[in-house]
Amino acid sequence: MHLASRLGSNRKHVPVPSRGNDFGDRRHQGFDPHWLWAIVNITMRKKNKEMAGKHRAPARATSLKKLAERLGLHPATVSVVLNEVPGRAISQPTRDRIKAAAKELNYQPSLLARSLRNRRTLSIGVLVPDLSEAYHNQVVSGIGDHLMESGYFYFTAHHRRRDNLIEEYSQMLLGRGVEGLIAIDTPLEHPFPVPVVAVAGHRSIPGVTNVILDHRLAAELILTHLKALGHQRIVFVRGQSFSADAEERWRDLMNVARERGIQVPPELVVQLHGDVHSPELGYPVIQQLVANRAKFTAVVAFNDMSAIGTIRALRDLGIGVPGDVSVTGFDDITAASYNIPRLTTIHQPLWEMGKIAAQCVLDRLNGTERFRQEITVEPSLVVRESTQAIPKRNRQSL
User: Fold this and answer.
1) Is residue 38 included in any domain, yes or no?
2) Is position 3 within any domain?
3) Which of 340, 322, 234 is nearest to 279 (CA)?
4) Residue range 174-185, pLDDT digits in tens
5) Do 145 and 232 have their domain in common?
């Protein structure tokens, strides 16, 4: 179907008053409709002329040769100035004159030609599972902000955790000339011919730098906080198997729990399922836990979204947070500080991790830093409203 046909079929028809009746009645009241139509026509013609002036098509772009002829300069001199080639002795007045003429004549340098000449595209490829997830968005934001400040462009491809798309998209990005790759929460399988950084990457691959959180420290911060509040019966929500951080986070939580003397019975372990990026992630598993009559005073959620879903599930069952049960999250996404109650969580510096990943790729491209297998980032605990102490009189009964 042609676009014009589709647009026509979707138009909303607004009824227009009949000229024969309505205007005829007004003529008898001393109103001539022909004057109205004349005014409308004159006004519309004037408006069209004004709009045509405002939206005049841009002047046709000129070539480097014609620009140089206009200035009476050699094309190489003009190219050096417009491409900001360093180390060339060209006076500032000449530079200003070239840039002013380029703007006036709408000269647009060819990025393709520049890339072929310099063998540089100044572009980076970013692989991410899903752009709708808050964790991924904050990391991408840090990457994008830093690359733009550094004069680089970036392509983002989201693969929905499908192995074939991870491989296909990475090769497509390389085919488009990206100079480096950044993978977020994405399992890579092999080395690449360009510098690569994996945020939340836990696999040792030649040429790939992993930017990871110190999950051991995060586990210590969470469990030290809850134990100081008197909590011993704690539910642990385990992340989905496809999440890059799930296994390491779980292992460190269990190790620290054992060291702190916190028992983890099987009935207080909850496994998340499904590729969901909303509070729905934690809602059904907690409702099922309560239906099984499990006794607990705190929940350590896998991430902030599952924590927010946990709070909603408990409240829908008449269980107060933090009055009856304390809940902790992980990541410190933007929504964590606006939830009711505001969420106590592990702050993972996601924007900073994205910036670190971008800078690491640029350092390797520019040869300013040697290859590093791993960069570890420290978390912090943000205590808000979703956790509180158990009254001492109630601790003995737990």
Assistant:
1) no
2) no
3) 340
4) 998 999 999 999
5) no
Is-contact 234 296, C-beta < 8 A?
yes
> What's the pLDDT score for residue 57?
45
Helices 75-82/64-71 angle, 10° precision: 110
Interhelix angle 283-291/304-316, nearest 10 degrees: 40
Whole domain around residue 359: which residue ranges?
A: 122-213+351-377
Look-up: residue for tokens 């909850």? Answer: 270
Q: pTM of this prediction?
A: 0.72
Structural domains in the chain (count): 3
Alpha-carbon distances of 368 from 34, 91, 149, 361, rounded to whole Å: 77, 31, 18, 10
Same domain flag for 130 and 82: no
Evaluate whether residue 20 is within a structural domain. Answer: no
Among 53, 86, 109, the domain boundary falls at 109
Based on the fold, state whether residues 280 and 330 are members of the same structural domain.
yes
pLDDT digit string, tens, across residues 83-97 = 776 667 889 999 999
Cβ-contact 137, 126 below 8 angstroms: no
The DSSP element (H or E) to which 182 belongs, if any, is strand 180-184
Q: Indicate the pLDDT class of residue 59, thresholds 50, 70 and 90.
A: low
Q: Could you give the CA distance from residue 292 to residue 350 in angstroms, rounded to a whole number?
A: 36
Higher confidence at residue 37 or residue 124?
A: 124
DSSP secondary structure of 219-257: HHHHHHHHHHTT--SEEEEEPPTTSTTHHHHHHHHHHHH
- CATH code at 195? 3.40.50.2300
Structure tokens at 142: 């840090």
The answer to whether 360 and 332 have CB atoms below 8 angstroms apart is no
Instruction: Give CA–CA dist 134/259, Å, rounded.
Output: 32
Amino acid identity, residue 243?
Answer: S
**Measured at the alpha carbon of residue 140, what is the angle toward residues 353 and 363, in degrees to the nearest 5?**
55
